[in-house]
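Shapes recur. One chain:

:::
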Amino acid sequence: MIDVSIVIVNYNVKNLADNCISSIYKSNKNNLNLEIFFVDNNSVDGSANFIEKKYPEVKVISLSENLGFSKANNIALKQVSGKYVLILNPDTILEENTFEKLINFCEKNPKTGAISSKLILANGKLDSACKRSFPTPSVAIPRILGLSKIFPKSKLFGKYNLTYLDENKTAKVDAICGAFMFIPKKVLDETGLFDEDYFMYGEDLDLCYRINKKGYEIFYYPEVTTIHLKGESTKKTHLSYVNNFYGAMLIFVKKNFTGVSTLLSYLLRFAIFWRSLLSYFKRIFIFFINPITDALFI
C-alpha cells in the first residue's frame, strides 16, 4: 500500500524540481511507500525529460500546453493511490522526517482535513501564505487598503495572513497555500479536487473552503519546516500576479459568498485596477530611472 502520494506541478524550473525531488527521498528516512507524480506544464527547459531520466521511478506526465495549476494537479490527483496526498510546489525543499511527523499529527487529530508545514523563504522569513483566513469583507477590505501591511499584528487588520499569530505555534486556520498541502485522501474523495475555474491562485483557498464545509479542520503545523524558494514567476510586482491573484479572489467570492459578493466584487475589481496601475507606474519608473542614473554616475 502507498503511504503518501506526492504531486508536483512544474513549469520551467528544472533545477528547482530536481532539488525538490531529491529532498523528498532524503526526507524519507523510515522508507515509507511513496509515489511521486511530476506534471510538466509544457516547459521549454527540458524539465520532463530530465526528471524522467534521473528519477525513473517518478511518474512523469508531460502536457502539450500550460493548463495552469488546478487542471495539471487534477490530472495526477485522479491517479493517486496513497492514504495521504502531498500537493507540493517544485521550488520547495523538505526536511528529514517530514512525512512521519505529518502522519502522526493526522493520526492524533482524526478531524484533520489539511496541513501546511511552516514555509520559510530564501531570506529566512516566513512565507505568510501558509496560514490564511477566507476573504470575507472584514478580511479582504484591510488587505485591499494595505492596512494588513501597516498593522500586521492587529487582530482586526491582520486577518488575511493571520500575521498576529505566533509563527512557531500550531494553529487551526481557515486555509493554507498550494505550495504545501498535506491531505488525507479520504478527505479529497469527499470534497472533490481543485476547481478548474482557477488558473493560478485561489484554487487552494477554494479547496480549503470545501474541506471546512465538510466539517474537517485545517492546521498550520510549524513542527515541520519546508524551504520555499519562490522564483521570478511568483514575484508580486509582476502584473500577471496582481491580475491572477485578485481575479482568483473575485472568482472565490462570487462562488462562495452569496449575499456579500456584489460589494466585494466591486472592491476587488477596483483593487485589480489600482494595483495594476501602480505596477505599471513602477515598471515605467524603473525603465527610465536606470538610464538616467547611468548617465549621471558613469
Observations:
- Residues 38 and 128 are 26 Å apart (CA to CA).
- The beta strands are 4-10, 34-40, 59-62, 84-88, 92-94, 112-121, 171-173, 180-184, 217-228.
